[in-house]
Amino acid sequence: MNKTYNLRSDTFTLPSEGMRKAIYEAEVGDDVYREDPTVRKLEEMSAELSGKESALFVSSGSMGNLIPLILKGGLGKEVITAKESHIVRHEIGAVASISRTLINIAKSERGILNPESVESLIHEKAYDSSEASIIEVENTTSGLIYPLETMKELKRIAEKHDLWVHLDGARIFNAVVKTKILLSSWAKEADDVTFCLSKGLGAPMGSVLASTREFIDEARRIRKILGGGLRQSGFMAAAGIYALEHNVERLEEDDQNRISISRAIEDTDLFDIDISETNMIFFKARYNRKKSLEAFINRGILVLEEGDDIRAVTSLNITKKDAEEIAELIRGIKKEEVK
Ligand SMILES: Cc1ncc(COP(=O)(O)O)c(C=O)c1O
């Protein structure tokens, strides 16, 4: 069988041997009773990294987004966010159905909120209208890094109007590595932050939610309601600790590999690149879309369709050599093949 290159998502990453060993050797207990030392270690590490008082290990990025919406949103409350955000597009409406928070869409440019538009959506309390209680930002958003200045501006607006800022930092470490801005500096511009261990960091599952001690104590109760109170979850927390210790700096390679692949896509003159930053490339076919997709698949390059775009994501699955091979294969795509 010909070699395949999985560029569909960084969620396909598999635990390395070192990570599997860490899972095997983990010291565990019942985390619902807070007696799992490995979970506690991951939570302490994460609180420190994010500059917050406390942290909670949750099952997924979706749970890390949902808990703050339940705690700070609810009946008659709104979350102001971008139309491109994950909570709007890819969480099956849990914002509405479970947290019962209304979504209020502010203007955005490729997922990055326009602060003026955000502020225009915040109005005086009225007996017959819902009111904004949360501003939600996503960093990175479709691979794009939020300008820190924009985050500061949004936080300033939130403070002025007494709103909560939730940061969906599923892939924040891709931004940390590229900008050299620490997680704690990004997280300072939000009241809570969630980040994923299971994407580019390569753990099999899990995310972390960090904020004040008071908020995390409440979050722990909501996690239990959602069925996320797990017992010997230290096995998975061990993978998370391993990921934070070994797989953060290497995200730099994903960025480099993304650049090699992106250049090859551009060189063909058959596609237009919409976004290419950190570990994600979004591009459009100039000619026949179906044939263009087939041109990738036939070469063993697995990409995803996302809206009008084709998406390619670099991750632990792709080595430098793989990226060079992929670039070579892409340069071989001819116009006749995709017309
Ligand atoms: C930006 C963002 N937030 C949240 C999530 C949700 O993470 P999970 O799939 O672990 O629920 C994802 C998943 O891809 C994501 O891309």
In short:
The protein is α/β, with parallel strands linked by helices and 339 residues long. The chain has helices spanning 17-25, 37-50, 61-72, 86-89, 94-97, 115-120, 148-161, 172-179, 183-187, 213-225, 234-246, 251-267, 289-298, 320-331, 335-338; strands at 5-6, 54-58, 77-81, 102-105, 108-109, 112-113, 131-138, 164-169, 192-196, 207-211, 271-277, 280-285, 301-302, 304-306, 309-313. A seven-stranded mixed sheet has the order 2-10-9-8-7-3-4, sandwiched between helices.
The largest β sheet comes out as: 7 strands, mixed
The strand order across the widest sheet is 2-10-9-8-7-3-4
Oligomeric state of the chains present here: single chain
CATH level 1 name of the largest domain: Alpha Beta
> What class do helices, strands and sheet pairing give?
alpha/beta
Gap between N and C termini: 28 Å
